[in-house]
Amino acid sequence: MYKVKIYGAGSIGNHLAYACRSKGWETVICDVDPEALRRTREDIYPARYGNWDPEIQLITPDKLPDKDVDLVIIGTPPDTHISLALSVLERNPPKALLIEKPLCTPSLEGAKELFDLAGSTGTFVCVGYNHTMTDNTRRAEEILAKNIIGTPISISARFREHWGGIFSAHPWLAGPQDTYLGFAARGGGASGEHSHAMNIWQHFAHLAGMGRIVEVSAMMDMVDDGVVKYDRVCFLNVRTEKGLVGDIAQDVITEPAEKILRVQGSEGFLEWYVNIDGGHDALRYSDGKGGVKEELIPKTRPDDFKGEINNIESILAGKTGADSPIALNKGLDTMMVVAAAHISHNCRKTVKINYQAGYGLDAIEVL
Ligand SMILES: NC(=O)c1ccc[n+]([C@@H]2O[C@H](COP(=O)([O-])OP(=O)(O)OC[C@H]3O[C@@H](n4cnc5c(N)ncnc54)[C@H](O)[C@@H]3O)[C@@H](O)[C@H]2O)c1
Asked: Which of 6, 143, 229, 271: disulfide with 284, CB 3.0–4.6 Å?
């Protein structure tokens, strides 16, 4: 039985605590806010999963025992991720460390330090882009591996979702001004919150062997009322190292939500859907000769995190590693695109990412 410590008793802390308890793992949740711990026990966890699990320990940081655990999960706001991760790795490195997305703020502050420290401790560090490991993604990978659609020519990804759903899951927040969500510089706004779209675009480009995103041209719609400052819409045109072009759209205004990726191939196409209806993800694809095939993949919200936790279980058992779709370098590559998008929008120019320069703003050049 693995031992897990989760920082943050919020929405994701509860999801991942449930996923860990479903594996029978010993789970401690730590939050700086005692009220968040109370909410977890009395509201969030029982409302989502039927009843509170008394095996879960709830604790404030001052009472947290400094004992060894196998897995640490950081499920706190994005602007706290790097400093917490660095202190975990410096003090008592676990076998695996899962940091929620987005990995950090668009300033990329601390990103290089984290990458270097992760390499020297031997801890397997990963970033919570869970959509790379769900059943619809695995099934899409099988279809692409059979070369049904021919050579991928272009990829489009859209995570466009009004954030009313997030606020109804956080009834104690009056609006974006009460949290990191209302501040792009803290990792909020559409670019940070829905960076799943950038990440899943990169995942499929990687599967197609087309390399990393090296050019970004972005346009955002910023909300700046003197209190909040965030992008409610973030559009990107991108090009990879090997010349694959495509587009990525993220927003916090679209209702009903749209979470789709489309790969256009030389022969046919593949479409990947999250939540096509209340109980399913889906795929649509064609080889360009016959008709369009459709597959509905039943799923619940807890299923969104099962593949991710299964992958971490394999990592803890020493069975998988560096090629994991949630490995730290993949999460950092996504952060580079978030940062590049902000620079491109601010300069109204295309920007280039030079990965040889390391994970910092120095690697982003305005063309
Ligand atoms: N992968 C996903 O599908 C998914 C889903 C939801 C949230 N997230 C991500 O998870 C992160 C948290 O989001 P959320 O909605 O759970 O936020 P939340 O506001 O519900 O919860 C965050 C909690 O962290 C606590 N906290 C802050 N600093 C802390 C510290 N130093 N130590 C311990 N606790 C601390 C806060 O008190 C709060 O209770 C964000 O980065 C978000 O993007 C990912």
From this structure: 271
- List ligand 1's pocket residues with C-beta within 6 A: 7-13, 30-33, 36, 61, 75-78, 80, 84, 100-101, 128, 130, 170, 179, 193
Tell me whether residue 36 is in a domain: yes
Q: Take atom 25 of ligand 1 and give the residue whose Cα is closest.
A: 8
Q: What are phi and psi of 263, to 5 degrees?
A: -110, 120
Q: Do 18 and 167 belong together in one domain? A: no
- Residue 319 reports pLDDT greater than 90: no
Q: How confident is the model at residue 291 (pLDDT cuts 50, 70, 90)?
A: very high
| DSSP 8-state assignment for residue 278 | T
Q: What is the 192 CA–ligand 1 centroid distance (Å)?
A: 13
pTM exceeds 0.85 for this model: yes
Instruction: Determine the 3-state secondary structure of 143 from DSSP.
Output: helix
Distance (angstroms) between ligand 1 centre and the Cα of 101 equals: 10
- Could you tell me the residue range of the domain that residue 193 belongs to? 131-300+323-366
Q: How far apart are CA 27 and CA 213, in angstroms?
A: 37
Among the atoms of ligand 1, which is closest to the Cα of residue 129? 1
Q: Report the CATH number at residue 227.
A: 3.30.360.10
